[in-house]
Structures are given as C-alpha cells and as structure tokens.
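Handout, page 2. Input:
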Amino acid sequence: MRRLSILAVFCVAALPALAQFQEKIEVSAVLVDAIVTDSNGHQILGLTKDDFVVKENGVEQQIDSVDYRTNLRLLNEREENAPFKVERVNEGRYFVFFFDKPEDIGAGFGKLALARRAARDFIRNKVAPGDYVAIVGHDVRLKIYSDFTSDKKQLERALNDVPMNGAGLTNAPAGDGPSIVRNLPMGEVMTESGRVYRALDYLADALKPIRGRKNLILFSNGIRDNEEFISGDLITSRSRFLDPAIESLNAANVSVYGLQMQTDPSLTPIIHQRLEEIALATGGEYYRFNTTFDVSLGRIVEKNTGYYLITYRSSHPRGESGFQKVDVSLKPAGLRVTARRGYQYGA
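Output:
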C-alpha cells in the first residue's frame, strides 16, 4: 500500500536547508501533539517548553514552542490575558468506532451488544457540536456502516447494522465533508482486507487526507493473524502486515484505544498482546476486562478535550525516507504524557 507524508500529530513540512548542506540534508519542522494527565487521568494545563523533553535516537532535540490547544471553553478571560498560552481549536474531533466482530457471532453477541450500547450512549451524551463519528466493522473484510457524520440518528441506525452480515457502504456521501469511503480503494478492500491488520491499514490510509486528530475506538476479543505463532502464553512471531498497519495509523494521525470485550482475567495473555501494542504504538490506550465500557469511553473523551502542540526541527538525508522514532517525556514528576512514538519522513 502507498505511504504518504504524515499530517497533524507528526506534521513534517520542508524548510530551507542550510546552504552548505542543501544537496545532502533536508531540515523539517516536526509538530508533535501530546496529552498530559495526572494519575487520575485529568488533563494538566499550563506547561511550557521547559517542561518537555523530546529525543530522536536518544538525542535531545531543541524545542521551538509548546502551545496548549482545546475545543472547550476553559477560560473566563481573553486568551491573551490567560496565565498560560492556549488556543481554542475550531475543528471538531473525529471518533471512529471499530467493531472487530468475533468469529462466533452467536457466542459473542452479548458483549458485542454491550459495546454497541456503550457506543450509542457515547453518541447521545458525549458527542459535542462539530464532532464527527464513523461506525466501521470487520468480519470477512473491512466494512463501513456509517461514514463521518454528526447525525446521531444515522449513527444509531449504523450501530444496528453492526451485528448483521451486510455489505456496508460502497458510495461516499454527497458533498465535500470528511469521508472514509471517498478515500477507500473499494475494489481492493473487498478482496484484500480479510485480515484485521490489513483492514486497519486500509482504514488508516483512508483517514490520512482528513486533517486533524483521529481517535479509533477498537472493540475486540483480541487480534492474532494466522501468520503469527504462539509459544506458551505469548505470540512469538509478527505478521508481515502488523508493522505496516501501525506505520499507516501513525502517518494518518490515528490514535487507537483498544477495548477488550473479554472479561475473564484467567484467559490467556494472548488476547491482550496485539491490542495493547497497537494502542501504545499509536499514542492511545488499552483497556482490559471491561465489564462495562462506559468508564473507558468517558476516559477517552476526557483525554481528548485538549493537547499540547510541540514544535521542533529535525534533519534527514535529502531523498531518503523512513520512520523516525521519537520519545516525549516530562521533567515534572508524577505526570503522564501520551504521544505518538514516531513519524514518517521523506517521500
């Protein structure tokens, strides 16, 4: 699948290189957004660039600026008079509910119904004006039950379609609003998205042209590709489709929040392994043993009310491309930072 340049969370825009290195080195602006919370998951405001540490390959980078951005009204005074720098973001948030349906839909119907009910409550009570939500699923392939919309009735109808064996949408909605279907190579999706990793890869590529942060809420009993082998209680080999899927999610500014539909803590750790890995690798979180999904969804909403936008400059050999690992940490003790683990550079 094609690999395009990254947007938003790690946004790389070419800057003029120093004249003496113009033919060899390309200097780019890198934008990293990071969520900072306390031990209870509440967002921390008022941090500056002196509170963050950003490293590439173990080398600390000089931070140019750090701004806090939010789509909520947190201030009672004008922004320029606030005790910390804040910018209210006008664009809404994007949420994608992804239902990785169990192979035995009958045996897993109860948990799937519970997940759908929690998603319905989320749509009714947590979706703010300007937010966009999509409903997708995977059984024999990736299926889109509702493209991005703020129409809550449409989304609830789509949730009713999730347990069925329907074909999903094949045509993009009218207009020029954000759309997953418009960006999907539907012919390929029909035949090539039978594996969950491949479905995530195609979905990420379709989300990439949509500007802004995207949150993928993944309900699943656990993911293991048929190319991956088990030894004891662990998956010991990697599918050739796993890393490309993670790279695509990162390139498209998609954070995955994995919600485990199995509730028995005695089950093998295999059910958690890939869900947790994908979530952590994309700047999301993984939630185990959800007897109810409402608490986890509430935490996801709270985490996405605002974020810090960190800007710094990085250099790479001109004409080369690849994945650059990035580590973001905090100097103040007792706080937690969640940020993507890298970005794609070059062509």
